[in-house]
Structure formats: structure tokens, C-alpha cells
Design goal:
With about 625 residues, the protein is of the alpha/beta class. About 40% of the residues lie in helices and about 15% in strands. Residues about 190-200 and about 225-235 have low confidence and may be disordered.
Length: about 625
């Protein structure tokens, strides 16, 4: 096997040119085999195999700096830097990350997980090189979907001032997670299809090159000037008008063509964009046909592409999807907004049923929130569906544009809490803290699938900023008998007893029920409270009832700092109540990848760990 010849960085340069195509095939076969077992990002990685090979053939690692936007497409990069054995533990606890990690390899120079960041990071390296006098090369790779994020354009605006070489590879597959939307996508489509431009450029360049003595100099001058050949053929070229040289498009599955283009780009004294056209999912038919489905996939059957384990019960996203479709029928003012994730957030059915009331803004969370604020100010009821870890990118817009004006914007915060194998950049463990810190915001968390439905309906009838956070995975379908009407700021009691008060937020209600059962077996009684509202805090109930218990325990799938538990602790201290409080929450740390169950055990959020903490404190109490 050719792949077995790759044991460390730069080994690819020892291969014969004839071995490149074989290596590409073997890499794809390897990735399909490993991801089918462990899950991971398949389609994006299959699309950049040759692109990654070409970059490794042109660069010198770890001296040169290669920065991947988002980073989920860095699997081939990991293979080419000697991490083949690590794929058996891909995305597992203690194993290799599915994203670039500086602690894994000196060839991973910047850790990424969210979109539109690579140009800024690369520009930082390039500017630092000018300050220090180093001579390494810098390449940032981003997808065309990342250009829907404003941060990428902020970086491009600043990159135009750079005096030294900086290559920005635009990996153009017409996809972010869902298919790209908006004017920029149409612009890039125009570049892809401008064959007449490519033919004319090649013809003129060839003719000029044949002019004795001065021909090559003329071509080089044209390439370097902002008002060069492309300006004559395609007036208003976006990137060149920003002061950034544009090269391409080039076939992203032709290693020789890309090497030639990259070598040209490396000669440029300043920033240069190399436009590379790739096919997401290339080489695996199910992923080619359904690239969004294979963006991030669970283990699957290679022969069919079907999930290895069939989902038997609805997850919370499914419940949200069903409720949204029904709300669309009932209320013509309800509109839905997503940031390039219609399928993943459960808005596909709403989009199909009510296309005029559905808005995909691309990877632009900040814009999504302020856009929603405008819709609300104009009298509509916008529901913004975004993952917890991505919504944090729009903190200022939530605060400044929605909450100060008390606008009725509903935030459907999907993947709240631990999400598992995507690791630190994707764990949704900060939303209770950052949303709870903002005045005028209301924050809810459902205990089961029926309560999620009720909370969404409550939010539509509400008047003001409101967020509902719900976890990844199968929706809890027990405790159906507890379905009291939702009233602003009020909690729900699930079995009232004595001794221990368990105050559980959202997904932790299920855990609290299991904790109560284990405490019963030890002769300790407990009340489970479904908090429902993290904000506003149900201080009245706490004032009337908290002193009746010997121990208060808060349970939340959020970092401890700024979370619900600290609200309770502050309340108890302020009233000088003589009752100890245990805060069960995620420590003040970033959480690596692993299964959700495994992470809960490691973090002390599972029932057994919680019971152990309770028992340790309870036995020391002076009755």
C-alpha cells in the first residue's frame, strides 16, 4: 500500500508522481472504513483529499503553517502527518480529535471548530512573520460556505495591507453543511462557469508570453496589478477590488494542476486567493448524492450508507421539527431562521411547507440574530434555531439588538449541554451562563419531549426575548403524567418528599429521578423539582420551601460559573438559610470528546456520582 509509506510529515514528497492517484484512492478507502465505525465528518474530508495532498507536496512541515477553517476536513492532513494509527480512537475519549489540535502535532498550528476564522488566524501568523523576520509560509483553507460569515470579510479587508505572501485557498464545493445560499454563492457560481473567461485569459497570456524579451515581464506585471487582466474581462472582480490577487478556478481533484497553481501563488508578494473547485463526498456514492447527510455522520454501513444503528425514538430536534410545522399552519406570523443548518436544526419540513417564511442566512449567526430582531420589530414572530455552541458567536447581537429593545425573538437552542464526540468547540455548555447574564432574557429548559412542545407554544404567545435550550439525542419520553401548564417563572414539583431537594434543569430531570430512586434505597427521601425557568428564578417557591430540607442539590448540564446552581447558592446565602448546597455542574473547563454517557461519568454528572456526593455530605449533617 502507498499509504503505508506515509509515516511522518513530508513523506508524501518521497512518492513517485504515478503513486499520487493510488494514494488518493487509498486515503478515501481508509477514511470510509474508519468513519463507518467511529462516525465523523465524511463528505467534507472525501472532498479535500487531492487538495490536501497538493498542499503537502508544496509546503514544508512543520515549518510552514497550514490553517483549516472549521477543521473538520483535516483528516487527510492528519494522515499525511503520521497519525494513521490514531484513527482507531478518532473522536473517542482520550483519542484523536476530529479537529486540528496543537497538542497532537506540531503540524496543527491553530485549533479550529467554528467557521470563518482561518483567514484571521492565518493573517496573524503572516503579520507575526513580518515582525519577527521568520521565513515560513502561511496557507489558510476555507470553504465557500465560510465566506457567508462576516468575519471572513473583516479578515480579507485587513489582509489587503499585507506586504508578504499569504495564500488563502477557497475550497469551493457549493456546500457549507446545507447547500450554500445568497449572493456570494451566486457570485462564485459565476466564476465557476466563466469558461469563456478562462479560455480568453489563457489565450491572451499565451500570446503575450510569446513576445520576445518583454512578453514574460508584461504577463507578470498584469498578474500583479489590481487593474489587471481579470478586471478587463470581469469588471468588478470582488477579491481583486479588495487588493487581493485571485487565481483560478482550478480542479481540486487534479494534484498536478493544483501544484502548478500553488507554486504560482507562492511567488506573490502579498495576499492571494486560490479558487479550488471540489466535490463534497467524492469517491463514495452515498456521500456524493447526500453530502449534507454525510457532513457529520454516526457509524454507518459502507455498502448502503445507512446508519449502523437505526434511531427508534424521536430526538429533540425531531420534536421541534413537528411543532414548527404545526405552528406554521396555525400562526402566519411565525417565521423561521437558521444559519446554514436547515436539516440539522429540524427546519427542513417548515422550509418545504412555508418557503416564504423560512430564511437560511448562511454561516452568519450574528446577522441571523439582528435580522430576527428586525423581523420582530416589524411585527413577525421569528424563531431562530441554532446550536448552543454557535449561538454564543452572536452574544452581542442578542444583548444589544434583541434584549435591550425587549423584542419578541424566540431562540431554539439545539445541542445544549454535552454533545459528545465533536469535543471542546462544540459542547453546548455555556448557554445558561451567557443567556442568563442578559437582562430581559427568559430562559427555559424542558424535562421531556412533551414539555419542549409546550414551551415552544408558550414562547410564541410570550412577549419578549425568550430562549429554549434542549439537548442532543433521544427525547426523554417519561413523566408524561407531569404536564402542568407553563406559567412564567414557575417550577414544577415531581414527587414532594423530605430530606433532600433536587433542583434539576432540563435534561438533568431524568438524572434527578434516577438519583431519587437510589436515595430511596438508602433510606433518604427526596423531592425532585423541574426548574423549567432558569430565568426568571423562582425565588418565591424557594423562599417558602427551601428551609424545609436538610440538603439542596442543583443539577445542570452547564458550566458551574454563571449557571443555575450559582443562582441558588447566592439566594440561599442572601437569605442566610442554614442549609448546605451542592452544585452539580460541569467544572470550569473545556470538555474534550467522548460519548455523552462517558463524559457525564468523568464530570460527575451521572446518577451514581451524584448519589455519592450527596451521601458524603448527608452523613456528616448534624440532625
Amino acid at each position: 500500500m502507498v499509504l503505508e509509506k506515509i509515516n511522518q510529515e513530508n513523506d508524501i514528497k518521497k512518492l513517485e508522481d504515478s503513486e499520487w492517484s493510488v494514494l488518493a484512492d487509498e486515503i478515501r478507502e481508509f477514511l470510509i472504513d474508519k468513519i463507518s465505525v467511529n462516525g465523523g465528518h465524511l463528505a467534507s474530508n472525501l472532498g479535500v483529499v487531492e487538495l490536501t495532498m497538493a498542499l503537502h507536496l508544496c509546503l514544508d512541515f512543520p515549518k510552514d503553517k497550514l490553517i483549516w477553517d472549521v477543521g473538520h476536513q483535516s483528516y487527510t492532513h492528519k494522515l499525511l502527518t503520521g497519525r494513521r494509527e490514531g484513527f482507531d480512537g478518532l473522536r473517542k475519549y482520550g483519542g484523536m480529535s476530529g479537529f486540528p489540535k496543537r497538542h497532537e502535532s506540531a503540524c496543527d498550528v491553530f485549533e479550529t471548530g467554528h467557521s470563518s476564522t482561518s483567514i484571521s488566524a492565518g493573517l496573524g501568523y503572516a503579520m507575526a512573520r513580518e515582525v519577527t523576520g521568520d521565513d515560513y509560509r502561511v496557507v489558510s483553507v476555507l470553504g465557500d460556505g465560510a465566506l457567508t460569515g462576516g468575519m471572513a470579510f473583516e479578515a480579507l479587508n485587513n489582509a489587503s495591507k499585507l506586504k508578504s505572501n499569504f495564500i488563502i485557498v477557497l475550497n469551493d464545493n457549493n456546500m457549507s453543511i446545507s447547500e450554500n445560499v445568497g449572493g456570494l454563492s451566486r457570485y462564485l457560481t459565476g466564476l465557476r462557469t466563466a469558461e469563456s473567461y478562462q479560455d480568453l485569459k489563457s489565450g491572451i497570456t499565451h500570446s503575450l508570453s510569446n513576445i520576445p524579451v518583454y512578453g514574460d515581464k508584461i504577463v507578470e506585471r498584469i498578474r500583479r496589478t489590481k487593474n489587471g487582466l481579470k478586471q478587463l474581462v470581469i469588471p468588478g472582480m470582488l477579491f481583486e477590488n479588495m487588493g487581493i490577487l485571485y487565481l483560478g478556478p482550478v480542479d481540486g481533484h487534479n494534484v498536478q494542476a493544483m501544484i502548478k497553481m500553488f507554486k504560482e501563488a507562492l511567488k506573490v508578494e502579498g495576499p492571494v486567493i486560490v479558487h479550488v473547485r471540489t466535490q463534497k463526498g467524492k469517491g463514495y456514492e452515498p456521500a456524493e448524492r447526500h453530502p449534507a447527510r454525510f457532513h457529520g455522520t454516526n457509524p454507518f454501513e459502507i455498502e448502503t450508507g445507512l446508519p449502523a444503528v437505526r434511531q427508534e425514538k424521536a430526538n429533540y430536534t425531531d420534536i421541534f421539527s413537528t411543532v414548527m410545522r404545526k405552528l406554521g399552519d396555525r400562526n402566519p406570523k411565525v417565521v423561521a431562521i437558521t444559519a446554514a443548518m436547515a436539516d440539522n436544526t429540524g427546519l427542513k419540513r417548515f422550509r418545504n411547507m412555508f418557503p416564504d417564511r423560512f430564511f437560511d442566512v448562511g454561516i452568519a449567526e450574528e446577522h441571523a440574530v439582528t435580522f430576527a430582531a428586525g423581523l420582530s420589530a416589524a411585527g413577525l414572530i421569528p424563531i431562530v434555531a441554532i446550536y448552543s455552541s454557535f449561538l454564543q458567536r452572536a452574544y452581542d447581537q442578542i444583548l444589544h439588538d434583541v434584549c435591550i429593545q425587549k423584542l419578541h425573538v424566540i431562540f431554539a437552542v439545539d445541542r445544549a449541554g454535552l454533545v459528545g464526540s465533536d469535543g471542546e468547540t462544540h459542547q453546548g455548555i455555556f448557554d445558561l451562563s451567557y443567556l442568563g447574564s442578559i437582562p430581559n432574557m427568559t430562559v427555559l429548559a424542558p424535562k421531556n419531549k412533551w414539555e419542549l412542545s409546550d414551551m415552544i407554544k408558550f414562547a410564541v404567545d410570550f412577549d419578549g426575548p425568550i430562549a429554549i435550550r434542549y439537548p442532543k439525542g433521544e427525547a426523554y419520553d417519561e413523566l408524561k403524567e407531569y404536564r402542568e401548564p407553563i406559567r412564567l417563572g414557575l417550577c414544577e414539583i415531581i414527587g414532594e418528599e423530605q430530606d433532600v431537594l433536587l433542583l434539576a434543569v432540563g435534561s438533568m430531570v431524568r438524572t434527578a429521578v434516577a438519583v431519587r430512586q437510589k436515595l430511596h434505597e438508602m433510606g433518604i427521601s427526596a423531592t425532585v423539582v423541574n426548574v423549567r425557568f432558569v430565568k426568571p428564578f423562582d425565588g418565591e417557591w424557594m423562599m417558602q420551601n427551601s428551609s424545609n430540607y436538610r440538603l439542596i442539590v442543583t443539577l445542570e448540564e452547564n458550566v458551574i460559573t454563571g449557571g443555575y446552581g450559582q443562582q441558588v447558592l447566592s439566594f440561599v446565602n442572601e437569605l442566610a438559610l442554614d442549609v448546605p448546597v451542592i452544585n452539580v455542574a460541569i467544572p470550569d473547563q473545556f470538555v474534550e470528546q467522548g460519548s455523552i454517557e462517558q463524559l457525564k461519568q468523568k464530570l460527575g454528572l451521572d446518577a451514581e456520582s451524584i448519589v455519592s456526593r450527596i451521601q458524603d455530605i448527608y452523613t456528616k449533617l448534624d440532625f
